[in-house]
Design a protein that fits this description.
signal; TAT_signal; globular; single chain; Gluconate 2-dehydrogenase subunit 3 family protein
């Protein structure tokens, strides 16, 4: 990328994020309470994700995970709900700067004008089907704008980590699970 292209990309990204931040700040959307939600009959306290974030991730996760998800409707929805709860738990453990980046990304994708401009999604995330979500994700994956490509990578990574971090998903996705040494060495795998 040339220096001029780099500067243009940086300015476009800054303008886009600035517009989203101003719009979100004025509407108060990102201040929505996180709250407690039912996930498979259990009450789960969300620490980072808002209700709008949950709808966004429930719309994007089927496109990201595709055939790794269970085929049965109930099992599929259960897996998606657990994945979104896992994303919340993961982001909550991220550094404040990483949390800030995810908040900016989610705010950009919630604010109607920036969602339409940046993602090409005109309707709310609760009405987006997996095919439309896939079109959006592929646009960002193949974008010449580094900001979009980085955001795509972040969304895909956090979704995959949350999904494949659940032992219940391993057999369906043909993932053998983490190596035995990781299970014994890492504290998050220790049963108390």
């Amino acid at each position: 990328m040339s220096r001029r292209g780099f500067l243009r990309t940086g300015l476009a990204g800054a303008a886009l994020l600035g517009t989203a931040s101003a719009g979100i700040g004025l509407t108060g959307c990102s201040d929505a309470p996180k709250g407690s939600h039912k996930v498979d009959g259990n009450s789960v306290q969300y620490h980072f994700l808002t209700d709008d974030d949950r709808l966004l991730l429930l719309a994007l996760s089927p496109a990201i995970l595709a055939d790794a998800l269970p085929q049965g409707q109930d099992q599929r929805q259960q897996s998606l709900n657990q994945t979104v709860a896992g994303i919340d738990a993961a982001i909550y453990r991220f550094s404040p700067s990483m949390q800030s980046e995810f908040r900016q990304l989610f705010d950009l994708l919630h604010f109607s004008p920036t969602r339409a401009l940046a993602a090409g999604v005109w309707q709310g995330w609760d009405t987006v089907d997996p095919e439309r979500a896939n079109v959006f994700l592929n646009r960002w994956k193949d974008s010449s704008i580094d900001l979009f490509t980085s955001a795509y990578i972040g969304l895909v990574k956090v979704t995959n980590v949350a999904f494949y971090g659940m032992p219940a998903t391993w057999s369906n996705s043909h993932y053998p699970g983490p190596p035995a040494y990781a299970l014994t060495a890492l504290p998050q795998f220790q049963k108390s």
